Amino acid sequence: MDNWLPTLTTATPTEGFELAIKLSRMAIKSTQPDAAVRDRLRPDYAEDADSLIAVSQVVATNFATIAAANDHWRGSR
Amino acid sequence: MDNWLPTLTTATPTEGFELAIKLSRMAIKSTQPDAAVRDRLRPDYAEDADSLIAVSQVVATNFATIAAANDHWRGSR
Amino acid sequence: MDNWLPTLTTATPTEGFELAIKLSRMAIKSTQPDAAVRDRLRPDYAEDADSLIAVSQVVATNFATIAAANDHWRGSR
Amino acid sequence: MDNWLPTLTTATPTEGFELAIKLSRMAIKSTQPDAAVRDRLRPDYAEDADSLIAVSQVVATNFATIAAANDHWRGSR
Amino acid sequence: MDNWLPTLTTATPTEGFELAIKLSRMAIKSTQPDAAVRDRLRPDYAEDADSLIAVSQVVATNFATIAAANDHWRGSR
Amino acid sequence: MDNWLPTLTTATPTEGFELAIKLSRMAIKSTQPDAAVRDRLRPDYAEDADSLIAVSQVVATNFATIAAANDHWRGSR
């Protein structure tokens, strides 16, 4: 695998949140590498309230890590 | 995406809690960008006890991050 | 919304635990503002073992945040 | 409610783990105060693998908090 | 209960991971003390993908605590 | 069990993420040591959206631990 995650540092919280979403997707990609299968599964979660909430939970967990890595962007406001 | 999250700093814990709710919703919006679909799903979770508890879990996770970013608002009381 | 959460500081761990429960409920209230609906849902979770465990998980997550905010009440014993 | 949680400090990790279990139960008790209902629900989770795993998750979350409060009992061994 | 958890300190991350698994099991044992029932439930989770993932989540949570207690074994490599 | 986890230190966040995936799998392996059973279960989660999200949650939890162990690779960028 290429070095797709060279750093956890981002310029803004917004970019940190985007990175948290990316991490969530990369874990799924690692478990199910077949893009065709992932595409087929998409409606199963994108149109299901509980699945969307579960995705939101994973993003929240990853965002905590990225926020810590950026000292919570305390200099930004 | 615009810079919707310029900072994690809030004036009070109450505002921090509001921001935690916003983060939870933005992760869902990112996975399901179609507002019509999200509106259609709303009764699935807003009238389901387990879904509401799951939402509450996501908010709790995001609130932990925001509280840390604000040094737990230790100066407030 | 009024400033219902002016501080995370509490005098004792017991009061901190009570606050953790309150945070868990406020997130649900925010998602389902209709008190009548929330009352109708109550038996769905208050008489269901898995729902009660899930509530307990949310409280545990919020209690971690409040305990950190109070430096774990290290002066109390 | 009486001051049932005067401190998070315990003498040993073993006692801290016991306290984590107590916290998990107190959150359930707070949501379902009726002891008769809780007793009736007991077989629903005590004889269900997924429920037991979920209880274990709550205990793990509370144990993290208590361990932090005790500086992970670094002096013990 | 005997003092089964005298310390969170382990010599290596590998041993810390083993301890995380032990903590996960002890919480279940505390909720369901009857070994015969636990044995009967074993196939319910050991042959179910979602249950195994849930166990893995509990272990991850406990491992975070143990890793923190050992300062992440920073001296080891 | 051999010393399969000698350190939590990795050179890059990418390698840390790989290690988080490994930890997630090792917990499952510990609960279900039979490789034939694990292989048989694979389609149950690799082709199920909710299971994949749950795996992603476990990886996120383990990644938080590994990121902390590496001081969030703050020197990298």
TrEMBL record, chains A, B, C, D, E, F:
Cited InterPro entries: Hexamer_Tyr-coord_heme_pr_HTHP, HTHP_sf
Keywords on record: Oxidoreductase, Peroxidase
GO molecular function: peroxidase activity
Name of the protein described by the UniProt record: Peroxidase
Source species of the chain: Neoroseomonas soli
